[in-house]
Amino acid sequence: MAEGESTPTDDLRRKFGKVSVSGGSKGRSPASFNGGYQSSASSASSTQGLPASDWALTRGQNSRQFSNWSLRSLEEGDDGDDLVGVAETARANGGTLLSRDQREAVRFSMVRRKKDFKHMERVDGRWINVLEGLELHTGVFSAAEQKRIVDCVYDFREKGRNRQLRERTYSEPRKWMRGKGRVTIQFGCCYNYAVDKHGNPPGIIRDEEVDPMPPLLKSMIKRMVAWHVLPPTCIPNSCIINIYDKDDCIPPHIDHHDFVRPFCTVSFLSECNILFGGELKIMGPGEFSGSTAIPLPVGSVLILNGNGADVAKHCVPAVPSKRISITFRKMDDGKLPYKFLPDPELQNLHPLPYPPRKSTVQQAANQRSPNQQQITPQARVLGKHMHDHQGQEEGEIAGRASSSPFNLGSDDFPPLGSSSVNGRSNKPSRSLWR
C-alpha cells in the first residue's frame, strides 16, 4: 500500500473516533449505556448530529422507511472487533462500506421465525395444542449487541449489590440449596412472586416503586417491535432480568395475569431448555419433568401467547452454566403502579415494512438511469452478505434438526414476507436466497 494511502480501518477510526478499532477493546464502558445511571463524555458526544426522534416519517408518506434507529441505539459504541469486521468487508469489496440503513435491511431480512410448535394434550376432556401461540425468533441481536447487553446486566448487578438501585429493584437471595439463589432485577414495576412479609399477595405491588426501564432495554423493545417480533399493540412497559449461576432454575408456573399477552423472554450466555406441559412434575431440587422441551439458543427471543402462555405451564430446569434471561411484559392497565408514568419513548412504535420481494441488489441496479444499469459496489456487498448469511444459517438449522424434537429445518424459518395475505403468498422466489 502506498505511503499515506488510507485503509478502510483508518476511515473507520476517523468516522468513529470514540471507538478503539484495534485489539477488540471497547470504546465505551457499559456504564455509558446502562440505563442512565452514569454518563460519559463519549456517549454524550456520540449523539450529536442524530435526529431528535427515533422515527422519521416524511409528510404524506403512508409507510415508514428504514430509519436505522434500532441499529443506532444498540450499535453505538461498537466494539473494535465489530469495526474491524466491517473494515475487512470493505477491503474485500473495493473499500465500500455498508451504510447503517443497508446493514439494518440485511439483518431484518435474515431474522428466522418458528411459529408452528405443536404438542397435543388432553385438557378438560378435549385434545388441544398446548404450544399454540409460541414463537421463536433468532438473529434479532448480534453477538456484539448481546455482549453489550450482558455487560450492562452485570453493571446493574454491581449497582444492586452496592445499594445504588431502589430496594425492590434488586434481589439476590441466599443460595441455601440447589436451584435457589437466582438474582432478579426488576424495572417498571415491583412483581411479588409469593406472599411477602407484609402480606402482599403474588402480583404487581402497586404502591411499591422500582427503577424505570433503562435506555438500552428500551432499545431492545424498539428493535423487537420494529423487526416484527413483538406486536405494536402490546409494547412492554416492565421487565425482569434473571441472572443464573450453574444449577439455578425457575420452577413450573404460568405468568401472572397482571401482565397481558403476549410477552417474551430473551436468552443470553448459554443455551438451555425450557419445559412446557399441562402438568409439570418436580422430581427434585432444580429437576423437573415435562412433556415438551424447547431449546432456547443464545440470543433468541421466545414469544409466549395463547395456549403456550395460559394453558401450558413452563419452567427452566437447573442450568448447566451461567445464563441471563430478560423477560419483557406489558402490565394490565388496571394493575399499573400508582405512580407509573408511560414512557414517551415507548409510545407509538411501529414495525418496519417487510423487505421487498425484489432483491436489494436488483433494486439498487434499477435505481440507476437506463444508461447506468450496473450493480453498484454497495449493492454487490449487500447481496453478498445476504447470500453468505443465508447459507450459513441453513447449515446451522440443518445441523440442529437431527437432535430437535420439532425437526427444525430451513422451511421452519422462512424469509420475511412468506406469510399469506388474502390467500396470496408473499414468499420471495427461491432465487433470491440461493
From TrEMBL:
Residues 359-377, 417-434 have a biased composition (Polar residues). Residues 18-29 have a biased composition (Low complexity). GO terms for biological process: mRNA catabolic process. It comes from the Eukaryota. Residues 1-53, 347-434 are annotated as: Disordered. Residues 235-332 form the Fe2OG dioxygenase domain. GO terms for molecular function: demethylase activity; mRNA binding. The lineage of its organism: Eukaryota, Viridiplantae, Streptophyta, Embryophyta, Tracheophyta. This is RNA demethylase ALKBH9B. PANTHER family: HYDROXYPROLINE-RICH GLYCOPROTEIN FAMILY PROTEIN-RELATED, OS06G0138200 PROTEIN. Belongs to the alkB family.
